[in-house]
Amino acid sequence: MRLFFVKDFLDLVFPRNCALCGRSLFDYEECLCMVCSGSLPITSYHLRSSDNDLKDKVLGLSNVGMVMSFLKFSKGGQSQKLLHKLKYRNMPELGVELGKKYGEILYKSGFEHSWDKITPVPLHPLKKARRGYNQSEEFAKGLNQKLPAAISKDLQRVKFTETQTQKSRLERMDNVETVFALTPEADVSGARVLLVDDVMTTGATLCACANVLLANGAKTVDLVAIAAGD
Predict the structure, then answer these.
(1) What are 150-179's pLDDT values in tens digits?
(2) For tag attachment on the chain, is the N or C end more exposed, with fewer CB atoms within 10 Å?
């Protein structure tokens, strides 16, 4: 009884609201209300994971296998709003919830034994210290709750790069080509790796990370983003 009282008090003082519409959440809702969850722009990339426009984007950049995205990115749309909240509004729990939702879709679609490791794209230590968490790692935590593959921080960012926003596809690849490396304790030899990031635009960052993993003996590397678009 006391625990319920404390919870009710905390909900009163610190109300839990939907990250998209702002409506008060029920106890069984996490970061998104059922209405907003039901209207997310969920993609069907997992149905054609090795033959889709995202895979076409990375051809010639890396020898990756499957390429998928949970949400379709659109400027000003729900996916952009969610990514903004996740990255800039101190909502790591939103990344976990999105990962759980997509992890369940992947599990039900037959991917439950497809990977040995779930590896998030790393942030530079300065940026992670400023934000307090790595949004891609939070997404990986959610995936890990639905998929048996273990989270593995095998990559580190060894250079602080300038923003990619205004760069072309080839400029983005040049900008991140030597940015990532394995961590000293990492062992990816023979591993089937699911590499995850928050957003995929040209795929340059994901491919740079994938190339490091493949060069160090990873058996396969597949790519997943929270959102991807043109």
Answers:
(1) 999 999 998 866 555 555 555 555 667 789
(2) N
Region 196-205 average pLDDT: 95
* Pair 101, 138: CB distance under 8 Å: no
Query: What span, in angstroms and rounded, lies between the C-alpha atoms of 105 and 36?
Result: 17
Neighbours of 135 (CB within 10 A): 25
Strands 117-120 and 192-200: parallel
Q: Is 113 within 8 Å of 147 (Cβ atoms)? A: no
Cβ distance 160 to 118 under 8 Å?
no
24: which residues sit within 8 A by CB, 6+ positions away? 15, 16, 17, 18
Domains of the chain, residue spans? 41-228
What is the percent of the chain where pLDDT is above 90?
83
Please name which of 148, 163, 157, 153 lies closest in space to residue 196, comparing C-alpha atoms. Answer: 153
Structure tokens at 10: 């905390």
HSE, CB side, 13 Å, CA atoms: give it for residue 113: 0
Task: Quick: pLDDT tens for 1-55.
Answer: 454 444 454 455 558 999 999 999 999 999 999 999 999 999 999 999 999 999 9
Distances (CA, A) of 94 to 19, 182, 199: 8, 27, 14
* Class for the domain spanning 41-228: alpha beta
The two three-digit tokens of residue 196, written as one number: 């995850």
